[in-house]
């Protein structure tokens, strides 16, 4: 591997959203330009539902087609103008047969759409006397894994609730991924309990980097996001984390650490696949 390509600079944009799509896109555009001008990242990541409020009642109203919709066109132009890769958080996607998906788009420095990940696991909970939230009332689940490659490094894409499913992360690890990126918006109940825990768990289990980008916290919103966008390394150490408000997190990721950890703790070669077979067939 070319030594110059082992380091990749990331910029995580923790953005505060609103019900004004145009304002959200303008804010994202401004923060992307500021990140590139100030830090020169190779890859920029945005939050889940960066162009609209998070909530089942909003998804259809804000849904767009990909790649012809306003949000996609904005990210395409920015990626080309700034010469960076953009993992475009998520937007509600209007698909075929009137189906709506929670979708992450990925854009190349040439402005091309290189991947599209539809959230595979929908967040459906119904706690008696507590919270009831069912994405499946509006959204349709995606059925495809999404792997991108940047400078020779494979990166798996998931969205929010996807992070809870270790089998999904293991598939990505078995396919050679060195990083997983999850745009997400955990709430104020699950966030303090599980946000960091899940990221460190996926990083530790699979010996890779885990990157999450959350919306900034807005106490006046219908759904209050926890915030704390972060990067976790293959040792399961939190490299850097945002706080609650709008913030840009910049990290230089060293991919050589992935191989170091995998060599020093060789759990994948030591699995008892004669007793349990969870590896790629």
UniProtKB/TrEMBL annotation:
Its EC number is 3.5.1.3. One of its GO terms (molecular function) is omega-amidase activity. One of its GO terms (cellular component) is mitochondrion. It catalyses: 2-oxoglutaramate + H2O = 2-oxoglutarate + NH4(+); 2-oxosuccinamate + H2O = oxaloacetate + NH4(+). Residues 8-255 form the CN hydrolase domain. InterPro entries: C-N_Hydrolase, C-N_Hydrolase_sf, Nit1/2_C-N_Hydrolase. Keywords: Hydrolase. GO terms for biological process: asparagine metabolic process; glutamine metabolic process; oxaloacetate metabolic process. Belongs to the carbon-nitrogen hydrolase superfamily. NIT1/NIT2 family. This is omega-amidase. It comes from Stomoxys calcitrans. The lineage of its organism: Eukaryota, Metazoa, Ecdysozoa, Arthropoda, Hexapoda.
